[in-house]
Design goal:
single chain; 280 residues; alpha/beta; six-stranded mixed sheet; 12 helices; 11% strand
């Protein structure tokens, strides 16, 4: 799993920075921890995940106990990423959609950014079916396409449900153009998106293709200030560490400031729709 490998490598890089900041060589650190020096190298290169006890020893040796809790949270997130993806493959995509219904139903503020596809809560049934068909084909696991589509459509009920819920969704202009399904599917999806612009509990922004690059970001969803969900090619990562949630909030604020809203957003969607219908 590439995402797990990347997360393990990132943790190793942070530990290497701690060692260097303490002016210790790998041999020095290994001696203080009572390890073979090759263990230091494997951990720092992301070839081996440390245990929580290893992290405590590392921080103590580097006189950096203040960051231990943060490092342990990263390690637990890494483990959860792998386990959750394995459960998803085993239980099927419909199970994953049911989990989203629960999470979204309990959340008061959802901030969602998707640069190149329509967010799940804004998808038509045919668009969702095309997306999920591709996901099942690429990822594997149970082929429960129709059940997964039904569950994804059920998720949209949260938009109509009474209560103090607010949705701020940012869609990249790049999401308006790729053909998901076929041309008819895309026409219906873009028309649906135009209708969603008028929803009172939804602030929908479209981020133009030609904006200044100000924030590195892939897709992510912020649920209140409790957790962030982000998806990669091979895994889904739930982030609960406060410092990482704050960074996603900062990124979302930058992107939101660059987005087009109301009539300006409508114009971008209409332009994409006119290309589909031959009106330009």
């Amino acid at each position: 799993m590439r995402a797990v490998d990347d997360a393990r490598a990132a943790l190793g890089a942070r530990l290497r920075e701690l060692r260097r900041a303490a002016h210790l060589s790998g041999v020095d650190l290994a001696a203080r921890c009572g390890w073979h020096s090759s263990k230091i190298s494997r951990i720092e290169r992301g070839k081996q995940a440390p245990s929580e006890a290893d992290l405590a020893d590392w921080c103590a040796a580097c006189d950096s106990m203040a960051v231990l809790d943060d490092l342990v949270a990263s390690l637990r997130n890494l483990r959860a990423m792998y386990l959750e993806w394995q459960r998803t493959l085993a239980a099927g995509h419909a199970h994953r959609q049911r989990q989203s219904i629960k999470t979204e139903g309990e959340t008061r503020l959802i901030r969602w950014y998707d640069p190149d596809t329509m967010p799940g809560l804004l998808q038509t049934e045919d668009y969702a079916r095309a997306i999920l068909r591709v996901c099942i084909s690429m990822i594997g696991g149970r082929d429960d396409l129709e059940e997964a589509v039904t569950m994804r459509m059920a998720r949209k009920g949260v938009l109509q449900r009474a209560g103090q819920r607010f949705f701020h969704i940012l869609v990249g202009e790049a999401a308006l153009y790729p053909t998901v399904g076929d041309n008819a599917v895309m026409v219906a999806q873009l028309e649906h998106l135009l209708g969603e612009l008028d929803r009172p509990n939804l602030r929908l922004g479209v981020i133009p293709l030609d904006i200044e690059y100000r924030a590195p970001a892939t897709n992510f969803v912020i649920y209140d200030r409790a957790q962030v969900l982000t998806e990669t090619v091979s895994a889904e990562l739930t982030i609960t560490r406060p410092s990482e949630i704050a960074l996603h909030e900062k990124t979302f604020a930058v992107l939101a400031d660059q987005a087009a809203y109301s009539d300006a957003a409508r114009a971008l969607v209409v332009r994409a729709l006119e290309r589909r219908t031959g009106a330009v």
